[in-house]
UniProtKB/TrEMBL annotation:
It comes from the Bacteria. The keyword Lyase applies. Pfam families: DNA_photolyase, FAD_binding_7. It comes from Brevundimonas aurifodinae. This is Deoxyribodipyrimidine photo-lyase. PROSITE patterns: DNA_PHOTOLYASES_1_1, DNA_PHOTOLYASES_1_2, PHR_CRY_ALPHA_BETA. The lineage of its organism: Bacteria, Pseudomonadati, Pseudomonadota, Alphaproteobacteria, Caulobacterales. The keyword Lyase applies. Keywords: Chromophore, FAD, Flavoprotein, Lyase. Its EC number is 4.1.99.3.
Amino acid sequence: PPVILWFRRDLRLADNPALQAAHATGRPIVPVYILDEGSAVRPIGGASRWWLDKSLKALAASIMERGGSLVLRRGDSEAELRRLIDQTGATCVMMNRLFEPDGWARDTDIAHALKADGVEVKGFNGTLLTRPGSVLNGSGGPYKVYTPFMKALRAQLEPPAHTTGPCDLSGAPEVDSDDIDAWGLHPTRPDWSGGFLGEPGEAGATRALSAFLQSGLKSYDDDRNRPDREGTSRLSPHLHFGEISPWRAWTAAYDAAGSDGSSAGQADKFTNELIWRDFSAHLFHHFPTLPTDAFRPEYDRMPWINDAAQIEAWTKGQTGYPIVDAGMRELWTTGFMHNRVRMIVASFLIKHLLIDWRKGEAWFWDCLMDADLAQNAQNWQWVAGSGADASPYFRIFNPITQGQKFDPDGVYVTRWVPELKRLSPAFVHSPWTAPPEILRAAGVTLGRTYPKPLVDHAEARQRALAALKTINSQG
Ligand code: FAD
């Protein structure tokens, strides 16, 4: 009888533990992807749906090259698995597990139910460096601070046994499959995907990694904070959908650091980011309310203002702070935003505008191709100061000096805010400080060609600090 290979967020054939295990049985493999929107804790966001559409098509093509056929089903996971078991006579289901609390619980229930009917179910870790629950502190609990987690993870890290490449996938029984285009994953109303960047799928992931190792890794430590340079790997959507394993990125970084003479220190910096990804995933696994509740509960007493017009100005990149507006427009246009700018725009929303971080998190969820519940929530809570190992709330990013420091020539800002392109770097991060004749010569009329700042930085800063006092004074 065949084995069902249930694809989740592991949309690749290489380094795929569930596929390797299925292959090792020597039985025909029935690969399936189930779009189960009904039981998802949160529907997939718009930009991620675009990515998923392309990624599944790439996976289906690779499977076809190996003589197989990806079965696509939409509906309740358990019901669809049972239907497939009935159709194929399969007696075993293999999958790489989801570690998000909701997915974990659901899959555990499905596994119990199928096992009760005599179907073997096997789960693997194909998405994280380490399995949640395997990196614990001295008292057996989860780490809540990154650095000790990072050290513990590095100390106990064991590379997975070498997994072979893709294998022959022919010989599975034929069954019905949905037409992916009928799933409507590609955005329609509106279709804003025209400028989305990236190449979904396993081949695209490999290309992104190679490009980064060739040009970005050697100066990663400096360039990773520079949105005006292409200094980071752009692997995040590939990692989210499991088109590449974090292990592959990890080992390739150390191999490249060794061979081109650049210090292993750069590879350490890069892999520390991969460890942040594990850290967020482990935290979420242990603390299921991470996307909904402040990790430090007193932060849920923050006197948010939540001004609807200001939220809209933020989403549209019309706040009057050029670095914030550039980031928000980059996000909308490309489905991606540079990490430094994510921190700046998030801090601006939360602290300058006193808008609940959950509203920003929701907008990112819909617009990011790499939208990931654990990563998004952990990072928003990091900026808000309410997270497990957060940046202190009183560290309020100054959007002017952040722009000057990380985009000194205004290259990034003017790419996304072209209405300021004739302003010199001295004024491009704070156009309202430019003398009227300079503004006139640059064709900028504040309030008409480009917005006046939504709030005054110094006043907003004081208001944010005062808000913090109110939550602290209540003990
Ligand atoms: P690189 O610098 O090349 O890093 C390599 C990999 O390490 C990334 O692909 C990513 O998987 C991981 N990584 C890097 N930075 C972080 C980080 N701060 N936290 C966790 N993992 C990290 N990342 C997501 O994948 N999904 C999200 O939904 C998400 N939301 C975010 C929201 C906010 C407010 C902020 C400040 C950050 C968020 N991040 C999120 C983290 C980070 O911005 C992206 O992972 C990063 O910009 C991806 O670019 P890259 O692949 O070129 O990164």
